[in-house]
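User: Okay, second chain of the day. Same drill as before: sequence in, structure tokens out.
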Amino acid sequence: MKVIKYSGDIVDFDPRKLRKSLAKSGAGDLVVEDILHKISKEIYNGISTKKIYKRAFALLKKEANSHAARYNLRSALQLLGPAGFFFEKYIARLFDAEGYQTVTNLILPGKCVSHEIDVLIKKDNELAMVECKFHSARENKSDVKVPLYVFSRFNDLKERKQIVFSKNEIVSKCWIVTNNRFTSAAIDFAKCSGMNLLSWDYPKDNNLKTKNDIDCLYPVTCLTTLSLGEKDKLLILDVILARELVNNSEQLVRIGLSASRIKNVLKEVRELVRCI
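Assistant: Same drill. Structure tokens below.
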């Protein structure tokens, strides 16, 4: 059975991949096998992976909103656009959770010119710049031109001492983060140049997918009990992570939710932030 990926590539349907993604949602083995059985009966030659995803999402939502929310992570990251401003804030939250000091959206002087920095991070007296490359379309990849360009900016920045967290600090490391993927050439150049990359699936065991499984750092855009407009309002209020609502439910009042809806949202949030 052939399926059409987001990129337009035609590949064989692999039930193992679907089973793995369903299991990562937190659904039990019986639920996973039942959904896999139903979808396997419904698919046809030439079906898109997008349709398979939508069907799996709907079936998971019938079981538990939090299962569907976890399964929805990659699409939820795309909702942090369209310009990527909230994606930058989300990435800062990821580094915050790992013990970094962070600042977003600032301008630093280099040796030759000034540079707009998406996120600046500091840990163990090491200062690093983080360039965020947001893609609104899932099939888009960050190619080798991205690390080439960012590397030149990094080289200019590291020639000047900065005053952000404290005086006379030097930007000694560079990260590039994307919600999608990097091409193999981009990864090769970054490795050779000593740059750090973070994407949907890279590095293999410490990527955007695994970081969420470990620390439950799901964005509010994952939540299935909120409309798109309500999610946008929360982002504007600087509520970026779903877990920030656990002890901050008054923000749900501020965006106009009724008491009964707030109860439903918080139920999903509490289930979602129980790391699986």
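The first strand starts at residue 2 and ends at 4.

User: Thanks, on to the next one.
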